Amino acid sequence: MAKKLRNKRWNTVTWRVWAVVGVIAFGAVVVTLRLVQLQIIEHQKYSEQARNTHIARETISDRRGALLDRNGYPLAASQDTYDLMVERGRWLNPDIARAQSTELSRITGVPAREMIETVTDVDVYEVPVARGLVYDQAEAVRGLGYPGVRLIEGSRRVYPEGNLAATLLGFVGQDGVGLTGLESDLDSVLVGSSGLITYETDGLGELLSIGDRTETPAQAGSNVVLTIDRYIQSIAERELQKTIEAHKASGGSVIVVRPETGEILAIAVRPSVDMTKGDAANSNPDLFRNRAVTDGYEPGSVFKLFTAAAALDLGLVDPSTSWYDSGALSFGEWTIRNWDLSSNGTQSVSQILIKSLNTGAAWLADLCGPDNFYSYIANFGFGAVTNSGLGGEAPGQVRSPTTDPTGWATVDLATNSFGQGIRATPLQVAMGVAAIANDGMLMKPQFVRQIVAANATESIQSEQVRQVIKSDTARTMLDMMGAVTDTISSQYIDVPGYRVGGKTGTANVTDDNGGYIPDTYIASFAGVAPLDDPEIAVLVKIDKPKGVPWGSAVAAPVFSAIANKALPYLGVAPTEAALVQDVQ
Amino acid sequence: MATQHRRETAAGIIPNGSLAVALALAAMIVGAAALLPLVQSSGSTATSGQIGRLQQEREDWRARLQEQEVLVAQLSSLAHIENEARTRLKMVEPETVRYIRVPAAAPVPNQIPSRYLPQPTAPSDAGKSLWDEILDGIPVP
Fold this sequence. Notes:
The complex is a heterodimer.
Chain A: H1 2-41, H2 43-54, E1 55-60, E2 67-68, E3 74-87, H3 94-108, H4 112-120, E4 126-133, H5 135-144, E5 149-158, H6 166-169, H7 181-185, H8 187-191, E6 195-200, E7 213-216, E8 223-226, H9 230-246, E9 251-258, E10 263-270, H10 291-294, H11 304-313, E11 322-325, E12 328-331, E13 334-337, E14 345-348, H12 349-354, H13 358-368, H14 370-379, H15 410-417, H16 426-437, E15 441-443, E16 448-452, E17 457-459, E18 464-467, H17 471-486, E19 501-510, E20 516-529, E21 536-543, H18 551-554, H19 556-569, E22 580-582
Chain B: H1 2-13, H2 17-75, H3 78-88, E1 99-101, H4 130-137
């Protein structure tokens, strides 16, 4: 009986044990299967989730490259700055806000009251109370150790030369992206490449000091060495500004080119934005425009240089070829007259330039014929962009029997010959004149000399575009340009020690309806110096001067002032021995 | 019977001298093993903190260098030079310019300041390693 009872109890125990073992075993199998699912089958998915939860990524960027003048002086560079952020909740206590803002005000210069108002007036977690702090200010703020007050690193563009070449350099937005000018055109070069820091974080998202950390360093942007010379640029800007103020003009441009290479030594434009003001971004967008490149104008009598060059190069005339000026020349139903309505009788080709005779220029163009004339004009680079690399460059406008067979009329040949009815940018005119000064070879305008990256320097070579006129023709043209300046009063052009050449222009200004605005002109002067072996070609354009509008009186003095200072600076020896003393 | 069994069991687990030493050693090893990650973690944290401090120091020096570069640029700007010439040195623009020919070479044109040029890189090959020399010594057909 007892044995039977024991067996029954044992059987009951065994069943229970097996039941428990079975449950545990089942659980173990379930857990194992789940582990297989999590760790093997869906390993990729969950490991990524874990990584995303515990690995933080931070994009970092290095300094934006600097824009340097041709001698390495920075025109635009970047400087680290710091924005001061305050947690709003911390300053809801007036005593804390007052105490902390007073100390922060002492460092940042922002009034304490203004800081408190900035923080309390908005309903966000964190508010910037001071921007653009420099390193020492940031250190002082850090030293205070206020909870809820932190610094965010950023950078700003600084302009050591002030507003020099502002429209050429352009503007960088708060996000560090170039918005206008070279800052925009060269943005990909200047900005460099961003880097990445990855690190492990804890459950609260804080950095795990013993976790993994990898860093792909950011690459600093390349420094760009421009062809601009800060000294010549400053002379050009100063003289341009002085002339605009003296003649109450609406604006103007000055371009200084090195003919042999096409390097732009200076490009001054007015009106222009003031980059030194903190609120440049809010300026009128028109002020950012580089009008010497984006805006066409009717170049007027300066264009007679190209007409004369074409006729000379074709062998149709020479400087002494005579021609009778009756004061009027008919083209169909239109009559061309001189600017002063004069009739000058027998004149030479040189005198056409010296006296700036419209009738003479029209005669020369007529001699060339439309095909030849427009072919030369196109070869000088008019009607097409110069491929300078600057954004928004205008091609100008040249109507010819080929490009506009129905709109073009014979009289256009005559008006185009003296620079009316045709549009060109100041850069095109400057490069055309530089081609004459460069033995007839047209060069591509060059603004960048070198791109200096972290590990290599790329030098930009000057580029020849085409031989427009023969070398002999170019030499003859320079002599004729010298004859022109010889007749201009020394009150306007006086470059002691150097012989210079050029051509004046006084052009009508078109209105929006295609007509001309009465008594409104563009005064210009295109010159080269020294005449024997030109080192600089200069175009001066003054818009809508009041009073005397003549290019000789308004624009030529700017050329004179630039040549006077630029030639000795460039190391060009004076050609007139009377001014030279020998020192033993 | 049950009492005797417990007594036997108790007698079986009473440690003798050598067992006590072994257990003490085992406890120490386990303790040391438990301490090792702590020591490692502590060392790693300290090193990590040191790296952080050095990185911050590097950033500080970089920022100071930038400040100095900007200062140099501002001091060498045309406007500053002209202002110094006019106010401190009392210089004025010449009324006439006279050119003098001197028997000397022209000044060397300005060079781009080194801070804007590529940084010189250290030579990558610092000499052959011992292994390279051994491998080079093996005649290869």
